[in-house]
């Protein structure tokens, strides 16, 4: 089949009803997958489409499906399989919008978590197109409430995701039960061996359509990355949310546990956020998505798998809290924003050990991702002040009943408060307390010379609070012990940082790097006192302390490492600012 460049939908030979619906939906010209996929599917060929979320693939198969439906027959004529309930609902709704002017056409979404009795009643009345998840489709097959005798078209949407979720046997059973003369269309982001196995077994001489890589990243999306210390990612993320006034946002991370942690941190800071991952029950997922679509929740934190099928229009942006382990996931993620000609933002928070993944993504997408500058604390306060002033100005201009409150200022004056105090108090109340957990200089990681050469900086002095002995030593100097001072255990500390390389944290301990050392005249008791006091952990749990000329290593329990990083980063020891991070092994 020869590929043509169709500039308009009318060139594709579509019916007037479909063209009218497309026009109302705001579709101006076919996307690459639509321009290639619609003609191939409409000519009756089996088709394999390699395309990601956000490329318009639902219309690529949905339009030909609608064009081939016989309204006079109440039998199921097309089946669309989707991996998740969310995607099944999304696909059925979009096909429904495309079918707006095809009177009498019936579409039913069937999935787990919904009443199977209601679905059975609907199927008995007659349905032309069924969109469902493999498990629920199998349930109806076993109950003989879903029959495929007159199915003309079978669509596998997000086939790779369905296989990853363990639906291979179900998919093969469903395909085997289909009429042999049906048309099969398969869409997948990747062409893995299991996918190819299914295509060879169940598809007949298929046409392969592939969206090339440079078409995967939307030109309307501003892509920027920020070099951020792991423990400062939430702080940087909230600054970006405030700076760019992101009202509808998807945040992606790599693990379920991280989803819960981020949501908790955001909620504590006053941001309306919810999380979605594989451990949520169907009802919980539905509630979370309903609140997000209604705007009650403005930030949705999700794992890649849980986000499949989520399609919310008008997203302001996407934040990659973790850099994805797979380059294609990055494309999936940022494709959620910048749709339908709108602009979007894709921000990536890159820790030092994630930088290589970002380079791989740039190589894959053929797009240079620009490095951004983290907004300063003063920037954020300034932005919030400007929005406060704008809000008050609008209230004054639009308010017809402000005279009801004219005496409030006078009442406050009588209470002894100046106009300046009143305005400042109102601003604080409306804008919220401005949090500043980190100094601006402690948000981003820097390539330190000591990181590159093994932190070679001469010998260090080791102290261990938990070792025996009532006193501790520093290069032979005896110092008096106190309740914060680690007891005696000293490494000899050879030249060129040998003690750094030879020592590793004990089991259950995490080694931290502090930017203060001997030249700053700090003692072990100063370090232990600061950590114990600020992080609220017992001083006796702190392990070995290695003090060098310009930096120090200190071992803390793994369970307390995160609390120590939060409490100490941007703090001071003996009045001197200290930077703290996980020590590089």
State the gist of this model.
The protein has 585 residues and is an alpha/beta fold.
What does this protein look like?
The protein has 4 domains: 9-211, Rossmann fold (3-Layer(aba) Sandwich); 221-375, P-loop containing nucleotide triphosphate hydrolases (Rossmann fold), CATH 3.40.50; 378-431, no CATH class; 449-582, RRM (RNA recognition motif) domain (Alpha-Beta Plaits, 2-Layer Sandwich). It is built from 22 helices and 23 strands. It has a 7-stranded parallel beta sheet with strand order 3-4-2-5-6-1-7, sandwiched between helices. The protein has a 7-stranded parallel beta sheet with strand order 10-11-9-12-13-8-14, with helices on both faces. Strands 15-19-20-18-23 form a 5-stranded antiparallel beta sheet. Helix 5 (116-125) links the parallel strand 3 and strand 4 (129-132). Helix 21 (524-535) crosses helix 22. The chain starts with 15 loop residues before the first helix and ends with a strand. The model is unreliable at 213-217, 448-457 and 467-502 (pLDDT under 50).
